[in-house]
TrEMBL record:
Its main location: nucleus. It comes from Lagenidium giganteum. This is uS12 prolyl 3,4-dihydroxylase. It is found in: Nucleus. Coiled coil: none annotated. Pfam families: 2OG-FeII_Oxy_4 (PF13661), Ofd1_CTDD (PF10637). Residues 1-20 are annotated as: Disordered. Belongs to the TPA1 family.
Length: 572
């Protein structure tokens, strides 16, 4: 019987043929990678990835200041970028967002494009293409080579489109949140030349010490079509802001971050945090009562009744109606019910009439009147005035404690008011109307210049503070609805989320406890509990002039301290 024919086994591969196969596969992978790499590079400006250009950018980056950054004049293929801008204008919806630190129109996270229905995604094909190119390995390697930042996450995409229209702004911060490693901005304003007078420039700040930026920037980068700015996120150093846009033009940009690698990605480190890093700007929200730069002075509680001599002194400044016995009782009753009260025409007419023309003349003198502030940081800096920072928390002008040679007349008058606020007689009056005795106090006379000044939301680290603020801003319709800023706002902290990265929204009715618009000759008293946040909204360059005020803070005595003060007064 003939033997059955069996399938022959394949011949064993020789070592040489195996090597040939591996070599062929490797060449194929390299070829595919090269094709993919070139297809990615086609989305960018010609020559961007050339070795000579990368080396030149890296060398300039190492020498840049006030901190490490780079500014690339043309990043993206211009045809692609124009198509992206068209898609943005035609198919994306912007949401206005406003907090103590910014006012801007913004889209959602562009990482979510992949989840859109096919019909919607097809309308954003060029934007989708650009997003993928920005987070491709080719471009991430380029970013790493220029900044020497190490590996970047290949999975975490974090970007959105911002539209800065007239009145939009972003105040000083350092971008330190979570796992951010590199910040970037790609500019898409109208391709026509952007005039620096329109505002909207990126401002980079030097530091006077780690975590404390100077009050003014040393580098100002106006937006330009296809310009790309990036910097490594440097805790305590990478402070920047965006000037207010003051012209009826749209400063469009794509901004975002590259993040440190996540677990399972190349370059992942289990604990990549920097133990020497300064606190992020958002973590510096606590208003320390032991602040050596703005200390509280210990004072006697002054819980006794007003004397005739006290009333005579108060009458040099105040409207006499407010220290009549019957009115003291009515004010005290309302404050006891509401924990806040506003008193209009607080200064007597003769005194107020001296101040208003001084303030209006000062705004004219300094080029800050009529909604035409030039966004110049030196505006109004004259003898007797100090620009108060740090801008990560605040920027405004304050009156010096001691008189200065050649100081303007408004400074002298404001210092007089500041000293009046700190007087024992005024402290007696505040006790009569609030029922709150105090142990410490501090006061400042301030000017918030349009286009420059603000305070960010901070909270007290003690139980209760009594805020007393006299606003002396010359009346104008621009202040009525708060559209030009300058209002003071009290907001509740989020008990469920104490992450400092969560900004408190200005104007959110669920969080806003009290908002007072800038006004003329209005005294506001507020009992502020621990944790309640407070800020003065950035004064727009489009405002008619400065916000002027004198502010006083009392640390409220606890029951034991108040009882001791009563005993002392009874013994006298």
């Amino acid at each position: 019987m003939a033997a059955e024919k069996k399938n022959a086994a394949p011949p064993a591969a020789s070592p040489d043929s195996t090597d040939d196969l591996q070599h062929t596969l490797k060449k194929a992978r390299v070829a595919v990678h090269a094709v993919c790499d070139e297809s990615i590079k086609a989305n960018f400006a010609q020559g961007l990835f050339d070795d000579a250009n990368v080396k030149q950018l890296a060398a300039a980056y190492e020498k840049s200041g006030p901190y490490l950054h780079t500014c690339i004049p043309a990043l993206v293929d211009p045809t692609l970028l124009r198509a992206v801008r068209t898609e943005i204008e035609q198919h994306l919806v912007f949401t206005e967002k406003e907090t103590d630190i910014y006012k801007v129109l913004q889209t959602g996270d562009l990482a979510n494009i992949d989840g859109l229905p096919e019909e919607e995604r097809s309308k954003l094909a060029n934007l989708h293409r650009l997003r993928n190119a920005l987070y491709s390995k080719t471009f991430r390697d380029f970013v790493s080579a220029v900044t020497d930042c190490g590996d970047l996450s290949c999975s975490k995409q974090d970007l959105s489109i911002n539209s800065y229209t007239r009145g939009s702004h972003l105040l000083n911060h350092d971008d330190v949140i979570g796992t951010r490693r590199v910040s970037y901005i790609l500019y898409l304003p109208d391709p026509q030349e952007w005039d620096p007078k329109f505002g909207g420039a990126l401002e980079l700040y030097p530091c006077v010490s780690k975590g404390t930026p100077d009050v003014a920037p040393t580098l100002v980068l106006p937006p330009k079509w296809n310009q790309f700015v990036m910097f490594t996120v440097q805790p305590g150093y990478s402070f920047h802001s965006v000037q207010e846009v003051i012209a009826p033009h749209d400063r469009l940009s794509i901004s975002g971050w590259f993040h440190i690698p996540e677990e399972g990605e190349p370059g992942y480190v289990a604990d990549a945090s920097n133990p020497d890093a300064a606190p992020a700007s958002l973590a510096q929200l606590e208003d320390d009562t032991k602040d050596v730069e703005y200390p509280f002075d210990e004072v006697s509680a002054e819980t006794e009744d007003l004397t005739d001599a006290d009333r005579q002194y108060l009458g040099e400044f105040m409207n006499a109606e407010y220290f009549k016995e019957s009115n003291l009782e009515a004010i005290n009753e309302k404050f006891g019910t509401d924990s806040t009260i506003q008193l209009v025409q607080f200064l007597k007419d003769e005194y107020a009439a001296l101040l208003r023309p001084m303030f209006e003349a000062a705004d004219e003198r300094d080029g800050l009147a009529g909604g035409k502030a030039p966004l110049e940081h030196g505006a109004g800096v004259l003898p007797g005035w100090i620009v108060q920072g740090s801008p990560v928390k605040q920027r405004f002008m304050r009156v010096t404690e001691e008189p200065q040679e050649n100081e303007p007349q408004e400074v002298t008058k404001l210092r007089e008011l500041q000293n009046f606020f700190k007087s024992a007689q005024f402290r007696k009056w505040t006790y009569q109307v609030s029922g709150l005795a105090s142990t410490h106090q501090r006061a400042r006379a301030r000017r918030f210049r349009p286009g420059l000044d603000y305070t960010l939301a901070t909270y007290s680290n003690v139980s209760t503070v009594l805020d007393v603020t006299l606003c002396m801003t010359p009346p104008h319709e621009c202040w009525a609805e708060g559209e030009r800023g300058g209002y003071e706002c009290y907001i509740a902290t989020d008990e469920e989320n104490d992450d400092p990265a969560v900004y408190r929204a200005a104007g959110n009715d669920s969080d806003t406890l009290l908002a007072t618009q800038a006004g003329w000759n209005v005294l506001t008293m507020v009992m502020r509990d621990q944790g309640v946040m407070r800020f003065v909204k950035y004064v727009s360059a489009l405002a008619n002039g400065s916000r002027w005020d004198t502010t006083l803070e009392y640390l409220v005595a606890n029951d034991e301290e108040e009882a001791a003060a009563d005993d002392d007064n009874n013994a006298q």
